[in-house]
C-alpha cells in the first residue's frame, strides 16, 4: 500500500514540531524536527518500506522502531492511504479556489472544540466557577473607557417621529441617496442613548455584581464594545472625532477637524463611508473579551456576531429618524488605529455606520 501526506495539515515549528490535522480536529507532537524533511518530502505516494527506511535513517532508529513510528503516523492520519481522501476535501479545494485558505484554517481551528474555558477539561465547567478562579488570580479589565479629555454632556434626546415599527424595519436601506435632513445633536443623543441602553444596563450590573456572581460577566453581552462618533455636519457639535461614554451619556473630543477624507481612505476608499452627517465607529476592546473567554479562540467569532447585533441597533435608530445609513466592516486596520489613537491588538475599530 502507498501513503500520502495529510492533505490539509498545519505544521507548527516548535521545539518538537506540532501537526494540526485541521479536518480531523486533532493535534500531534512529533518526536523532533528531524521528522520534517521526510514528511515535507512526500510529494508523490510512497510505500511503507520507503517510509520505514527514511525514518530509520533520519531518526537514527532501528527498523522496528521506525516501523512502529510509521504505524503511529498512519493511525493518527498524518499519513493516509493514497487511494482515499477525507470526505471534506472537495469542499476544502473549493474554499482554496476562492483564496479562502486562511479563513478555512481559522474556521477549522475554532470549530467543534469542547465548550470549556479550562484547558484539558473533558466537559464544560460552569462559567461562574471558571470566572471566580480567574478573578481570584488576576484583575478584571476596566469596565469603562474614559479618555483624559473633557467630556461634553449630550443634550436632551429628541423624540422619534410617529412611525410604525414594521415600517421602520422594512424601510432600512444602505445604497440609497442621503436624506435631505439636517442632523442635530439632539437626534444623535437619542440614537446613542437608545442603542446603548442594554449595554449600559448589562455593564453596570456586571461591574456591581461580578465579585459575588462572577457569571454576570457572561451576560455582559456588549461589554467589550466602544463607540466613536466622527462628526462631519451635526448642528450643535464641532466637526471631529469623539469617544462616546455611555455611563455619562457624553462625548469626549479625541481630535477636532474634518475627517471625511481620512475615514474614506481608512475604509478602503468607499466614498459613502466619509459622506453623510456623521459616522459611528464601533470598536472591540480585546482584553475584556479575552478575560471572559480565555482559552476559547472560537470567541473571536462571538465578538464579530455581537458587533453585528449592536450595529443593527444603530441602523434601526437612524432609520426611525428617516436618515439614510451606510454600514461597512471593510477597513485598513492601521489607518483606523490612526483615526482613533488605538492599538489594534488592544482595541480595534471594526465596524463603521455612516448616517445622514
Automatic annotation (TrEMBL):
GO terms for molecular function: oxidoreductase activity. It comes from the Bacteria. Pfam families: Nitroreductase. Residues 170-347 form the Nitroreductase domain. This is Nitroreductase domain-containing protein.
Amino acid at each position: 500500500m502507498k501513503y500520502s501526506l495529510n492533505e490539509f495539515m498545519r505544521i507548527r515549528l516548535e521545539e518538537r514540531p506540532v501537526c494540526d490535522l485541521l479536518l480531523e480536529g486533532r493535534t500531534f507532537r512529533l518526536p523532533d524536527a528531524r521528522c520534517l524533511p521526510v514528511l515535507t518530502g512526500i510529494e508523490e505516494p510512497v510505500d511503507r518500506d520507503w517510509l520505514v527506511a527514511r525514518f530509520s535513517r533520519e531518526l537514527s532508529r532501528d527498523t522496528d522502531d521506525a516501523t512502529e513510528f510509521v504505524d503511529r503516523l498512519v493511525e493518527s492520519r498524518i499519513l493516509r492511504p493514497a487511494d482515499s481522501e477525507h470526505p471534506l476535501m472537495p469542499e476544502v479545494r473549493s474554499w482554496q479556489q476562492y483564496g479562502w485558505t486562511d479563513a478555512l484554517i481559522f474556521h477549522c481551528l475554532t470549530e467543534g472544540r469542547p465548550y470549556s474555558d479550562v484547558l484539558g477539561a473533558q466537559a464544560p465547567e460552569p462559567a461562574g466557577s471558571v470566572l471566580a478562579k480567574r478573578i481570584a488570580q488576576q484583575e478584571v479589565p476596566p469596565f469603562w473607557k474614559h479618555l483624559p479629555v473633557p467630556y461634553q454632556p449630550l443634550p436632551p434626546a429628541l423624540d422619534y417621529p410617529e412611525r410604525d415599527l414594521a415600517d421602520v424595519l422594512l424601510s432600512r436601506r444602505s445604497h440609497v441617496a442621503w436624506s435631505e435632513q439636517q442632523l442635530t445633536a439632539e437626534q444623535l443623543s437619542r440614537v446613542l442613548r437608545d442603542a446603548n441602553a442594554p449595554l449600559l444596563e448589562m455593564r453596570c450590573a456586571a461591574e456591581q455584581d461580578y465579585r459575588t456572581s462572577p457569571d454576570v460577566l457572561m451576560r455582559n453581552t456588549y461589554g467589550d464594545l466602544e463607540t466613536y462618533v466622527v462628526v462631519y455636519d451635526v448642528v450643535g457639535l464641532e466637526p471631529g472625532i469623539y469617544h462616546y461614554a455611555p455611563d455619562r451619556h457624553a462625548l469626549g473630543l479625541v481630535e477636532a477637524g474634518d475627517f471625511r477624507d481620512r475615514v474614506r481612505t481608512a475604509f478602503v476608499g468607499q466614498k459613502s463611508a466619509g459622506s453623510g452627517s456623521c459616522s459611528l465607529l464601533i470598536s472591540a476592546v480585546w482584553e475584556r473579551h479575552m478575560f471572559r473567554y480565555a482559552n476559547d479562540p472560537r470567541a473571536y467569532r462571538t465578538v464579530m456576531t455581537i458587533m453585528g447585533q449592536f450595529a443593527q441597533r444603530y441602523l434601526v435608530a437612524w432609520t426611525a429618524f428617516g436618515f439614510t445609513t451606510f454600514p461597512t466592516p471593510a477597513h485598513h486596520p492601521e489607518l483606523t488605529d490612526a483615526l482613533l489613537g488605538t492599538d489594534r491588538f488592544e482595541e480595534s475599530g471594526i465596524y463603521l455606520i455612516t448616517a445622514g
